[in-house]
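Sequence in, structure out. Go.
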Amino acid sequence: MHTVTLIPGDGTGPEIADATVAVLKAAGAPIEWEKKEAGLQAYEKGGDLLPEDVLESIKRNKIALKGPLTTPVGTGFRSVNVALRKELDLYANLRPAKTYKGIQSRYDHIDLVVVRENTEDLYAGVEHMVGEDAAESIKIITRKGSERIVRFAFEYAVRNNRKKVTAVHKANIMKCTDGLFLNVAQEISREYPQVKFEDRIVDNMCMQLVIKPQLYDVMVMPNLYGDIISDLCAGLVGGLGVAPGANIGKDIAIFEPVHGSAPKYAGKNKVNPTAILLSAVLMLRHLGETNVAEKIERALAEVLARGTCVTYDLGGKATTSEMAQAIIDQL
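Output:
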């Protein structure tokens, strides 16, 4: 039995979290939930956006499933999500993008994985004004940060029987920062001769993904490029509503959907639970519960393919809970 910290989130988060918990229970997933509140849920009750007991729970259990979180404008953390990643040193952002029959997309048979460095690059937030008329942002790329994210990508490829890793960069222009990242990637690739390695300049990578995405497999890149390309890949397979994600560190991992909290739909029981459910599938695989993960993904894929009991954004009329029940029935 695995004890997992459950952070339902706010906005539509609690609804899709409840749907996911119900599906995992029906599938027989050996999970015991430790439910915690963060974000607006905690803040509106007079607490902190990121209460200490939430961090303690994640550190103790080493694993969490999280719904989307909204941060109040002008107060507290710049982002609760960013604060969690920094506090827990969740350096690897894992973003699979896979097509499912029944979800409208321009492509078939896409199965891509974006591995995004999560802690440095321009997103380190080191910026300041230079006088009144100029602003400066410092791009930080370190050997340590590059080594661990590239090694993560290759280890993921080996564990999941992936054939190729592509390093994405702009080393033709940013020869020091992206040059360091590329050099490290080339060095580490030699340790994994069973995995094909190549590199692509980021703008060319975007074009390649739109024209011939089937040529790519696992892609590893610094923070900013990862943010952009992971959304591009989500667009290739039907949007953020079907985009799972994970933030993984040395000992701790948090699994969460990529989309936002959609507060205007809160309480309406109409949002699509696919992304958080696929994030839970990632979590189960991370925990070594491969059989139950595959069982859930197959049931979800069947419901998506039929298209008769899916939410409005997928072309159906089902509620969140009705779609969850259809997946349970399929199980």
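Check: Residues 106-237 form a domain with the Isopropylmalate Dehydrogenase fold (CATH 3.40.718.10). The chain has two domains: 1-95+243-331, 106-237.
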